[in-house]
Amino acid sequence: MPKRFRLTRRFPVAMTEDGFRRLRSFAAEAGLDEGEALSFLFENFDQVTDPEELAFRLRRFNAELDARKR
User: Fold this and answer.
1) What DSSP string runs through 18-70?
2) 26, 47, 59, 64: which has the highest count of C-beta atoms within 10 A?
3) Which letter, b or e, does each residue of 5-37 get, where b requires 16 or more Cβ atoms within 10 Å of its Cβ?
4) CA distances (Å), 68 to each of 12, 16, 21, 47, 65, in order?
5) Are the beta carbons of 24 and 36 closer than 8 angstroms?
6) What is the pTM of this model?
């Protein structure tokens, strides 16, 4: 039986302009709104990411994070 799609969780998020533009672009290409696109990405996280590439990108992002916050 398919899961019922309920938007019951709302949370404040901080995103870079580049990240938000990419989210909007992905959502538009997929025919979804931004919340639906995020739900899809997180529900299918293991299938849509390459674990090695993710680890590399995460280390790089974390190394630059302090500079991005200023």
Assistant:
1) HHHHHHHHHHHHHT--HHHHHHHHHHTHHHHS-HHHHHHHHHHHHHHHHHHH-
2) 26
3) eeeeeeeeeeeeeeeeeebeeebeeeeeeeeeb
4) 18, 9, 17, 29, 5
5) no
6) 0.74
